[in-house]
């Protein structure tokens, strides 16, 4: 075997082993064993001023531009595309986490590593509930390798900012988008020592380009974009049934009996009914709504056209309004559901699924924050609080027995309210 053959053989063995002759050693920022900030600073030091500027250029759908010389990929973004208030209506951080993981899977499949939204005002009016949901959302989304960018920062008072602070402190939020593009509060946040280490999206800030580049690189390292993707396989899809809120059910109109003979659906495209129900289902446009409502036993109207809802209810005393978003309902509308835009509402109307959502907002004087009915009855007993006289800062445990005393399966959200002692 000649010298050239030996060289070729050695090179082939090296390549099969996963390396090549003369392969350079990994640079410090590529070393996953180094501390996080050292990797950030090493990569930052290798960027020229022009590359820092290029990295920070953004446009719709683009958060950062790639710097291929150093193996820095560009970051593409996508809007949330989900109804955040529907998630909040479940009052369930675990559901929000599962939803976030599903959103992350969809984003990564579309080559997007940043999700913009929600605006935390859409997580409801209660700062504590919104904070628990925000922490769950950010932790799960970023844990899957996607930057979470929360919108609406800087709107409202200190209480309105509390959920953002919780997302920063407890979940390590990597990006915020100021309300109406106003960076004033964002600039104050960036100047706080040891707090927010991420970046501000969609608005100019007081930071120079080096600091802005540092913050974006932190976010990229933080979601593991320079490392091997080790995300666990996604879990089961979230059960969004928990979000549907039964706002009103006068005369126990719902759930519908299987003996119903005729149903008119207004503003909807389909209605699944159980096999044992032999009702005639017709579909009406808004122009036909009132006349067909008069001729049908049940009228189901989708959407938030309150004038049309009232007209249909006046024509048919058994009207069910399926709202896309909670609203104050005037007039005699006996049954009202907040379904957050979902159309597959048949199982809820016939009791195959028992709604268990609670409103994350109040619609005074009609519907209070936390209101939501069920087809079942629940009794509470044996309430205990440990310890009974807690010290400041001490963890308090609340235990209560909840029993479904109705005839149907159902789920109940137990609500606990606290206030500062005056």
Give an overview in words:
The protein has 422 residues and is α/β, with parallel strands linked by helices. It has twelve helices and 14 strands. The protein has a six-stranded mixed beta sheet. The protein has a six-stranded mixed beta sheet with strand order 7-12-11-10-8-9, covered by helices on one side. Helix 8 (184-191) links the parallel strand 5 (175-178) and strand 6. Helix 5 packs parallel to helix 6. The longest helix has 17 residues, at 93-109.
Kindly estimate the percentage of residues that lie in beta strands according to DSSP: 15-25%
Order of helices and strands: HHHEEHHEHEHEHEHEEEHEHEEHEE
- Our count of helices gives 12
Shape: elongated
Radius of gyration: 27 Å
Number of strands: 14
Helical residue percent band: 25-40%
The span between the termini is 92 Å
Mean pLDDT: 88
Sequence of strands across the biggest β-sheet: 1-2-3-4-5-6
Main sheet: strands, sense, barrel: 6 strands, mixed
Please state the structural category. Answer: alpha/beta
Low-confidence stretches: 1-23
